[in-house]
Design a protein that fits this description.
8 helices; alpha+beta; Enolase-like, domain 1; FAD/NAD(P)-binding domain; globular
């Protein structure tokens, strides 16, 4: 950025420039199917501009994930084979980057929530305070939850097996579960999944030791004999 040059010695260079939908040889123009350089245009039922033709996966997006193509296939089966109207819902889509440590997220980021003017509470808990992570010597990373009105609207996990751990939060968001359900559910010890209870319990800790709660306790104590 400053105009200076840096020399780096490496065995290999990986260039991750993204992917483009490969639709040039499909004959879409002849079929009357609308598309652009970003791929085939579909509605939420995965129908193209020709309603009897469907498209799923990387050729139509909006996410180039294998699990997204699998989800969209279910939408097509419901609409095309069983004639049961079903629309795709992309509000709760898990995203995982398979690095070491893994990075997994779902829902809104903190920046996106702020941009939308949403009042959220941010909860964090580090893996270095989870006993299973300590015993395995993999304590790098943490979990971060965005909570609005007692429900999770976004989450990020950085750490070993983050992609596996994310799905408890995915289920909570998909079903509209309150964080109280995560807190009261019994989590086996010692497991990495205990980080879910730990991070949620920080929310209760704030409420328990808030100035209002302390004032209430003092008032009750004055009434007691």
């Amino acid at each position: 950025e400053s105009g200076s040059r840096v020399r780096v010695l490496a065995d290999r260079i990986l260039m991750a420039t993204g992917r483009r939908a490969n639709v040039d040889v499909l004959g879409l123009e002849a079929a009357g199917v609308q598309f652009s350089e970003r791929g085939i245009r579909v509605d939420r039922r995965m129908r193209t501009s020709r309603k009897h033709i469907y498209a799923i996966g990387d050729v139509c997006g909006p996410y180039a994930f294998t699990h997204m193509a699998e989800y969209q296939a279910g939408i097509v089966i419901s609409n095309a084979l069983f004639r049961f109207p079903k629309k795709a819902d992309y509000r709760v889509v898990p995203r995982v980057t398979y690095t070491d440590p893994e990075l997994a997220s779902v829902g809104l980021s903190e920046a996106q929530a702020r941009q939308q003017g949403l009042a959220v509470e941010v909860l964090r808990f580090p893996f270095r305070q989870v006993d299973r992570a300590l015993t395995e010597g993999e304590t790098a990373g943490a979990i971060k939850l965005l909570v609005r009105k007692g429900r999770v609207i976004g989450a990020s996990i950085l750490g070993a097996q983050a992609g596996e751990l994310l799905h408890e939060i995915v289920l909570a968001m998909h079903t509209g579960m309150k964080i109280s359900a995560i807190s009261t559910a019994i989590h086996a010890y010692p497991t990495r999944a205990q980080i879910h209870r730990r991070v949620v319990n920080t929310w209760y800790g704030r409420k328990l030791f808030s100035p209002g709660t302390r004032s209430l306790v003092r008032w009750i104590n004055r009434l007691l004999p």
